Amino acid sequence: MNDARALNRRDHLVGAALCIGYLLLLTATASDLAMSRDESFYVHAAKNAANWMSQILADPSTALERESIDRAWRYNWEHPAWMKLSFAWSWLAQKHLGLFPTESLAFRFPGMLTGALLIWLIYAWGASVMRREGAIFAALAFASMPRVFYHSHLACFDIPIAFFVTLTAYAYWRSLADLRWVPWLGLSFGLALATKHNSWILPGIFLIHFVWIRRDQVRSGRSERASIAWLPSMLLLGPLVLIGTWPWLWHDTARRLLAYASFHLRHVHYTYEYLGINYFEPPLPISVPFVMTLFTVSLTVLALCLVGLYDRRAALRPPSLTKPDAQSNRRTEVLWLGCLLAPLLVIALPSSPIFGGTKHWMTAYPFLALFAGLGFLAVAERAEISSWMGRRWPTWAFAALCLMPAAFETAHSHPFGLSHYTPLAGGVPGAADLGMNRQFWGFTTGSLGDWIAEKLPNGGSVWTCDTTHGSWAMMQRDGLIPSNIRAEASMSAADLVLVHHEAHFAEVDYQAWVAFGSVQPVYVLRYDGVPIISVYKNRARPAR
Amino acid sequence: MADARRNLGLAAWVWLAIAALAIFELVAHPIIRAARPSDESWQAAAAFVRAQYQPSDRIVGAPAWVGPIVRSELGDLLSLRMAAPPDTAGIDRVWELSIRGAASRDEPPTLEQEFDGVHVRMWSLPGDELIYDFVEEISGAKVELVRADRSKACPWVAARQAPGGLERGPMTPGERFVCDPRRPWLWVGATIVADLELRPRRCIWQHPAGPDPVRVTFTDVPLGDRLLIRGGIDYQAERRRVHAPVTLRVFINDRMAAELVHEDGDGWSGLEIDTSELPRDPAIVRFETTADDPTSRLFCWSASSVRSHLPGGDRDE
């Protein structure tokens, strides 16, 4: 592994091609996914932000008054503004220029863009330190993780924060060798802070890594020392960017910052089914992020990640176990390992609020993919695949073979990304047997669009369960649901009742039984034979 | 040289292992998908059960997650009691439609049939004959809110149902006794709660109002050999295990016959009252719920008057 190789034009072309290809794939498949629960909240917040931005152009002095800012930014105050501003800009562009075929795509595009840029970044960082084949493998391994693919579609913060965390780690790594990167590090950390609170752990990871390389340098007796200029840059520029991009913090700053931190440190506990137990308060088993990763990421990619870690074990040794002079580089592997493990360990802590969904530790996966790239190269090089026939295609064929399971699984997971499990879990039915979470956010309603439209040709009403009314309205604006089929707030007043199958939604199923005096769904949406949504018909309502 | 050869050998083995892993994944997924039963298999299995169905049959799916599929095929045959049994009374046979080798019972079935991936089993389990289901008879009961030495009758009314939704508690039936419109939870009627294991239980919602009882009286109750009493609190309220116990007192002909004290964590539980020695005349049976603190006491109970017409029968609830 190189300490760093300068990227050339070809590298940028490859990175750009990966980025554009992924972006096109995401945009082409987005309409299959109904807007998820959280997206509907961020869409609402983004519209508020867009209105405020329009007000800034029309009447800046009024827009900057506390009352205007609070009115625009109070909703969803618990999340920073950067991505909501991006969604808002994209929506304004849609309103004025009609860039996108659907309104939901306008909101989702900035998130997709960060997902595509992350692929580029993984390739670029990988190509800086390893052969291109490994870097391409890493980028594609990340792109073809089923849950990454799902989340990359969304107007949410999980893929954006994975991008900004990786970007910040990259900028930190560059700044260790080139002080011109120091301000870029501060800026990227600021954008990470302004995207999601996963970024809070970055200074800690970098400090541990920095101490590691400084110990290396001391032990080697070299006079040169890595500069710690990166730290003040992060600590000064980071908060400035966070506050500067988040108007909610422009008044009553300290109190609101504290409230923001407190909200996430004392986050409500989501109910989450794991190995047959429905957890609703901590501690969630420590194994959750590891087992969920095992069950949702291709086993081949995981195995190559382990091979990569094993192959680079010498570079991961603590300074005290390393011969002086043996390490003169930036210990890239140590940094990657820190970025890989920290998000998993934070969620695994018994005191952490219950989250459960893989999205909460997805910032680890770019580094998992990079180690998989190293593992792929290690296997290919050591086994001397290319030399077998004196050509390069066997290496590429091996890469394709290793990526194919993930690619096929991702293709099959769509549009049920959160319900998908790998063969190690026994697939979707195996995971159901094991009692694993089947879905959340109510986005699977999108898969019922045609069925609902067919059943209610003259309009009607649907009780939408975990699908918010905002998501429903977006489905209507996107043309997935006819406009004369409205979301109904009361089960007994609806023509159709949806029940999303998650363990703790059992009570909703029973509510429908009592409401209609029947336990018979008229339709069960299934994925690989596993119930995803039951639909009940209100037989007391006149036929439409 | 020897080291290099050995390393190459190890690397080749790792290469082979990784390639084998990839091939395993590639093959495993289609195999898993192909193993799921077709709609036709489910329909054929359901038709087989439907042809032999009797009203005292219960129909279940195994593993439990296939329940919605089984109910979509055969749900019209299932009463709310059979789908959400509070106890085993009145169930003479259990049909099970299972896939993936799952089974809801261990003992050998009376009947067994395979339908291309859907396995049908039937167990004959003649046990208690249900002669009076209090839950189904709730509309004929008298409900009162007792305060000191006075009582206020709660009228049976057609009332708006709850909207439904997560953590909204059991669904209010369209007709129920309403004791205090200012306290919307103070009603009595038949519903289904999710018990501590999230299983459905058909029961009578009788949220205690406090230390003074909420009273439900049934007249002309035919008594058999036993009264099966069960009770529980809705999952969302019971799982936190922080609230006060609920007491359910059962009176037969004005004499207290049993007291069930339900504490959070007990789950769906209960007791039996031996009525075999009581006169065979129709009885007056009264149920009173109290709690020192009624906060979040989403209590629901069931009672079945049963006659044991056959001994034995290994029954699971």
Provide a brief overview of the structure:
The complex is a heterodimer of chains A (544) and B (317). Chain A has 544 residues and is mainly α.
Structural class of chain B comes to: alpha+beta
Outline of chain A: globular
Biggest interface found:
A-B, 69 and 68 residues
Major sheet of chain A: 5 strands, mixed
Number of domains of chain B: 2
- The helix tally of chain A amounts to 23
User: Please, how many helices of chain B?
Assistant: 5
CATH architectural name of the largest domain in chain B: Sandwich
Percentage of residues assigned to helices of chain A = 55-70%
- Percent of residues in helices of chain B: 10-25%
Low-confidence stretches of chain A are none
Structural class of chain A: mainly alpha
End-to-end CA span of chain B = 70 Å
Average pLDDT across residues of chain B? 94
The CATH class assignment of the largest domain in chain B is Mainly Beta
Widest β-sheet, arrangement of strands of chain A: 4-3-5-7-6
Average pLDDT over all residues of chain A:
95
End-to-end distance of chain A: 67 Å
Explained architecture:
The complex is a heterodimer of chains A (544) and B (317). The radius of gyration of chain A is 25 Å and the shape is globular. Chain A is built from 23 helices and 7 strands. Chain A has a 5-stranded mixed β-sheet. Chain A has a two-stranded antiparallel sheet with strand order 1-2. Helix content of chain A is 58%, strand content 6%. Chain A is mainly α. Chain B folds into 2 domains: 88 residues, no CATH class; 178 residues, Sandwich (Jelly Rolls). Chain B is built from 5 helices and 18 strands. Classes of the chains: A mainly alpha (544), B alpha+beta (317). Chains A and B meet through helix 15, helix 17, helix 19, helix 20 and helix 23 of A and helix 1, helix 3 and strand 10 of B.
List keywords for this structure.
heterodimer, A: 544 residues, mainly alpha, 2 domains, two-stranded antiparallel sheet, 23 helices, 58% helix, B: 317 residues, alpha+beta, Jelly Rolls, 6-stranded antiparallel sheet, 5 helices, 18 strands, elongated
